[in-house]
Amino acid sequence: MDSDSILSLLGKQKDFCEARVEKLEFSSVRFKDGEMQVNAGTEEGANVRVFRNGCWGFASGKPCELPKLLKKAKKLASVGKGRLKLTERGKLGKIKNWKIGKGIGVEELVRVSKELGKRMRGKRITNRSIGLFEQVDRGEYYNSEGESVSENVLVMYGRFSAVGKKGNRIEEGSERLSSLKKWDEEELLEKAKEAKRKCEESLDSGAAKKGEFSVVMDPALAGVFAHEAVGHACEADGIIDGTSILGDKMGKKIGSGLITIWDDPQLENGFGRYSFDEEGIRGKKVDLIKKGRVAGRLNSIETAAELGEKPNGHGRSESYASSPIVRMSNTCIEPGGQEVEELMEMKRGLYLKGMCGGSVDPFTGQFMFRCEEAFPVVNGEVGKRVRGVSITGTIMETLLEVDGVAKDFELSPGFCGKEGQNVRVSDGGPHVRVKKIRIG
């Protein structure tokens, strides 16, 4: 169906309804210890949501089946009564047209992967894994109020892993790279070599001491903290369900005045960038923590109505086959005014880089992160790498202990999972110093 036909179909309905159409072109290559797996193809899909009697009816299938999907969604919405409400949507307005890049295709991905695999060889490296993925996603949104909007996005993502062995010890080094513009072969090579370096250095590192220390988090680890410990706690569905420690903290001081954390769907270089969400709402920047105080929440049109707030474009779904739920996009700590060297001026502490696993309980605020790399700092001097470092604490205690925020800023890409759906995101920020945290 063309755009006019879809709008005409939806416009004839008494209930609010919306439709999404997606067209995907994808190529992926996975190199593992010399073996290559290649996949490429196209996919099309569509869905319809109908809102009736306080509940949604949802159906997905092929774009050519939209009339049938609408009929099914109407039937599902009529099954019972719910308590959901929808807030005023506001005008979508003009959408920014991002420049879309061009992928390199399967043959080039294979060539590059082979070259990257060579760069990751080493005497102690036992396993090498490289995954390169590119996809053009063409998304269209329509609703019964006559709104329609479309956006094309080129998504490129690479992951590199090197596993090594020394005696009975096995260690891994990993790296990630993303772009919404183009592949940079030199940067790919650097990431591959960096994964190998991390693995080899980890094999040679000694064990870390336990206790309470001052720490400096690099942008990658600080970004993970912003996403996992703060971002999830600010998702409005969790607040409504009573599973977020920040549910009753709006406007209250929970951290150092040096800390501001925001989520911005339209961040220029963010891997989670988009102009509008799957509910046809413009993606807006939201301050989650502003100078230590809880300042905002991420909303869908449902949660905004429930909380008496405005929707801010954070209703996202993995694909046309899933209903949108509240999600983050690009979640970051705002840079401060200090130099990184100033933060390192610690009598006894640790410099922590990256994260390779962990968990957060958004209800209690407790967290545990395993750090990818760690270096002792004595009287401002950074020492040799140590291994087995994890940090534990609670969200608010840690935010209150922040006593330094640097001027720099870096982003890290990834995919966030929630309720069985994965969406692309990024997180980041500057170097951040925490005066006291538990090292385990």
Q: What are the key terms here?
A:
2 domains; 9 helices; 23 strands; alpha+beta; six-stranded antiparallel sheet; PmbA/TldD fold
Protein described:
The protein has two domains: 202 residues, PmbA/TldD fold; 229 residues, no CATH class. The protein contains nine helices and 23 strands. The strands form five sheets. A six-stranded antiparallel sheet has the order 3-2-1-4-5-6. A six-stranded mixed sheet has the order 11-10-9-14-22-21, covered by helices on one side. The chain has a five-stranded mixed β-barrel with strand order 8-15-16-19-23. Strand 5 and strand 6 form a beta hairpin. Helix 3 packs parallel to helix 4. The radius of gyration is 23 Å and the shape is globular.
Topology:
Elements: H1 3-11, E1 16-32, E2 35-52, E3 55-61, H2 66-77, H3 105-119, E4 125-143, E5 148-166, E6 169-179, H4 185-204, E7 206-207, E8 211-217, H5 219-231, H6 236-241, E9 261-263, E10 286-290, E11 293-294, H7 301-307, E12 315-316, E13 325-326, E14 330-333, H8 340-343, E15 348-360, E16 366-378, E17 381-382, E18 386-387, E19 390-394, H9 395-400, E20 402-405, E21 410-418, E22 421-429, E23 432-439
Parallel strand pairs: 7-18, 8-15, 14-22
Antiparallel strand pairs: 1-2, 1-4, 2-3, 4-5, 5-6, 8-23, 9-10, 9-14, 10-11, 12-13, 15-16, 16-17, 16-19, 19-23, 20-23, 21-22
Helix pairs in contact: 3-4
